Fold this protein.
Amino acid sequence: MKFAPVKITGGPTDGKNILFSIWETRRMDYEAYSKDVSGVDGEWKSAEGNEALHPVVNVSWEDATAFCAWLTRKERAEGKIGPKDEYRLPSDHEWSCAIGIGSKENAGTSPEDKSQKLPGYPWGNSWPPPNGAGNFGGNAGYGDAYDRTAPVGSFRVDQNGLYDLSGNVYEWCLDWYSSGQEYRVLRGGSWDDTSEVILRSSCRFLSTPRGRNVSNGFRCVLEAERTPLPETSGIRNTANGAVTALPFVGKWFQDDYYILFNEDGTGERDIRGIRPFKWTVQGKDLDIRWPDSENIKWIMRYDIKGKIDFR
Ligand SMILES: [Ca+2]
């Protein structure tokens, strides 16, 4: 799973960068969970024509929440995330921030009160959706190549680096839909939706917490601690021992690799411990090179507010 930071404005996580999975949770992710935990409901397997890279569907809010709790337990035990870091569903307001309308909504009112109130879509105000905007229903006045779900990441990427917020599958959010506490919130529309109202960024859908549907999946977020280092701290280059000031402590997650910057500026390695790497720092750029292949290079750009961009 890959994650990208989304700046949250308003609500309990105001000012934080919440790491959003760039994809909806895939069948391959859910399969790993179902093999590791006994008693996981098997209805997700029944969706027709789906493959590993398609989003998992037929999962309830309770299923999705249990998946996030499992991933948190697993990665804390493996040392991939810190003891206070947590995978969970995004809140309804955080999801609004991800799709670009968080600052236009009141974080304190119920999803029901905000549903469909704002016009507009992730691609602007035009209707029907432009080509490549997402995986929607066949009668949306827009053609895509998929009758049902599409592999995650098949359509346009947004300004935060996220795919398929709009369309493909509905995504469960943490919140109750309204004060009656009977339904949970779903966002974003699906492969089966064609309505210009339903596909608005502000539209909310609802279902009981145990409801499962072929249009409903979910996306995880990671709420992680990230504390700036004092200005005098630095990172030690393991190749030559030099310490370079870098006011940042953080973690970055890539499918197989995990880079950790400890508070004392040491601890650099990949999670498998196979290949140590060295780095150079130029301004706010961290240039990471594998010693056995100068052609493989990651450059990470930092600012002290915690935003990380891969280039
Ligand atoms: Ca979606």
User: Anything to note?
Assistant: Residues 61-77 form the longest helix (17 residues). The helical segments are 27-36, 61-77, 92-99, 111-114.
